[in-house]
Structure formats: structure tokens, C-alpha cells
Amino acid sequence: MTGTAVSNAIRRLRFERGELTQQALADACGVTRQTIIALEAGRYAPSLELAFRIADALGVRIEEVFQWSKPS
């Protein structure tokens, strides 16, 4: 299986906030732009702390950013 069972709405939320760049979000969360790219592509599931940082930077609840699908 490729990817992760955790999906996200980071890209949509960035654009809803005036096209916030990947770099600006990365800077606000203390990670690299490559980390944001990997998250948006579903190749990486964030730590709980990073998930909260991203939600805070986007001004939404964590549940609005990340969803988990139970593997079958």
C-alpha cells in the first residue's frame, strides 16, 4: 500500500485563506516546504503535534484538516 490512511484538506484550506503558499504554511509550522508537499500528496502522516500546528496555522479545528480512514 502506498500513502497513508490519513487524508487531509490542506491544499483546499490554503487556497481558501488567500492562496497561502506551501512555504508560508511550512514557516508557520516550523517544517520544510517538502514536508507540506508530502502531506498534501498523502505520502506522509504528520505527528499529532504537527497536525495541531497545521490546524492552528490555518485557523481551523484539527478535524477540518485531517481525516482518518480505517483500513479494511
Structural overview:
There is one protein chain. The chain is mainly α and 72 residues long. It has a single domain (9-61), classed as lambda repressor-like DNA-binding domains (434 Repressor (Amino-terminal Domain)). 53% of the residues lie in helices and 8% in strands. The protein has 5 helices and 2 strands, in the order βαααααβ. The chain has helices spanning 10-16, 22-29, 33-40, 48-58, 62-65; strands spanning 6-8, 66-68. A two-stranded antiparallel ribbon has the order 1-2. The chain starts with 5 loop residues before the first strand and ends with a strand.
Could you give a short description of this structure?
By secondary structure, the chain is mainly alpha-helical.
Report the CATH architecture.
Orthogonal Bundle
- Structural class by SSE content: mainly alpha
Which overall shape is indicated by the principal axes computed on the Cα atoms?
A: globular
Element-by-element helix/strand order: EHHHHHE
Could you estimate the helical fraction of the residues in percent? 40-55%
| Uncertain stretches | none
Sketch the major β-sheet.
2 strands, antiparallel
Percent strand equals 5-15%
